[in-house]
Design goal:
By secondary structure, the chain is an alpha+beta fold. It has 5 helices and 3 strands, in the order ααβββααα. A 3-stranded mixed sheet has the order 1-3-2. α1 packs across α4. The longest helix is centred in the last third of the chain and has 19 residues. The protein starts with 6 loop residues before the first helix and ends with a helix. 24% of the residues are buried.
């Protein structure tokens, strides 16, 4: 059974997760928007909790930025509320998911994020 959390509470939890990121990392984030969505797009990987779409900072070259749309980080409310069994677990998993997707923005692989405990 999904954990009950309003969209506003969920968005606040995602914002709280952002607040835990050291300022020096936030200062290095560039051209990225974080969005809460209720569900992933149809046909997405089952159980997808978040998604980074864009060009990681480590892959950008001198031509980047000329007309590039912002990178997007999607945090999926529905899968996260279904994945967790308690409110505390949900709050923790929201933070992990936000940090995981931000890691992709910095060019960190899934494997390394799992090694670091952010998978």
């Amino acid at each position: 059974m999904p954990i009950a959390m309003s969209r506003e509470e969920f968005e606040d939890a995602a914002a709280d997760a952002m607040d835990t990121i050291p300022q020096e990392l936030l200062d290095r984030m560039d051209n990225v928007a974080i969005t809460v969505e209720d569900e992933p797009q149809p046909g997405s990987v089952p159980g997808l909790l978040g998604l980074y779409v864009g060009v990681p900072l480590t892959a950008r070259d001198s031509g980047y930025g000329l007309g590039n749309l912002p990178d997007r980080i999607y945090i999926y409310r529905g899968p996260l509320t279904r994945y967790c069994h308690t409110r505390d677990q949900l709050l923790h998993q929201i933070r992990v998911t936000v940090l995981h997707e931000i890691g992709h923005h910095f060019g960190i692989s899934d494997e390394r994020l799992h090694e670091l405990g952010w998978g």
